[in-house]
């Protein structure tokens, strides 16, 4: 999408914001929005069904909420070491492949053919394919690990 011109024409609008924030999370062309809202969830549903793991509505809904959380957090503009819920974050952290909010923010700072940090759930594939950009603010030594941010549900 970032290197193929025919796809970039639909994704380019989303990258006009260099510092994402919640209000601009869904800022994109109509074609991309339709694909994100209907295309990707349907592809995921039919792929799972094809490989023998069909999901009912409630399983699909829980998975969709996970994706919504990751999308909103990735475009929040916050500077904190928050990761998408993942039972393997401890393992990903060993390879510096865990995803935090700043990673997607850095992805937005570059555009056509120069971007990095493509992963939306982990940086594992970015590590493997050499598209992982160094963090500017939330690198390990700069994080105050004793300062916890709580997010009360109720």
UniProtKB/TrEMBL annotation:
Residues 1-131 form the Fatty acid hydroxylase domain. It is found in: Membrane. One of its GO terms (cellular component) is membrane. One of its GO terms (biological process) is lipid biosynthetic process. InterPro entries: Fatty_acid_hydroxylase, Sterol_Desaturase_Related. GO terms for molecular function: iron ion binding; oxidoreductase activity. Keywords: Membrane, Transmembrane, Transmembrane helix. Its main location: membrane. This is Fatty acid hydroxylase domain-containing protein. It comes from Akanthomyces muscarius (Entomopathogenic fungus).
